[in-house]
Amino acid sequence: MVRSRASTEAQRGDVPQLLFDLVGGSLFPVSATVRLDRVRAAVAEFAVTGRRSSCLSWQPARLV
To answer: Where are the domains of the chain?
Structure first.
């Protein structure tokens, strides 16, 4: 089984739980979290290319 960095960080408690639905209390999956340094790199890449960043692992949206 291959574990993502996000799931490993979540097990250590490094990833906060983020609410998806305030009324129902659903949470975003841990795999949807992105470190701030990766966000900065993605924004910088988008500013140059105008396209979705290739430095992030994108996943399909799913309704929780």
So the answer is: 5-49
Q: How many CB atoms lie within 10 A of CB 46?
A: 13
Tell me how far apart the alpha carbons of residues 17 and 15 are, in angstroms, rounded to a whole number: 7
CA–CA dist 4, 2 (Å, integer): 7
Q: What is the mean predicted confidence (pLDDT) over 25-34? A: 82
Whole-number Å distance between alpha carbons of 18 and 1: 25
**What pLDDT score was predicted for residue 1?**
34
Residue 2 pLDDT class (50, 70, 90 cuts): very low
Amino acid at 1: M
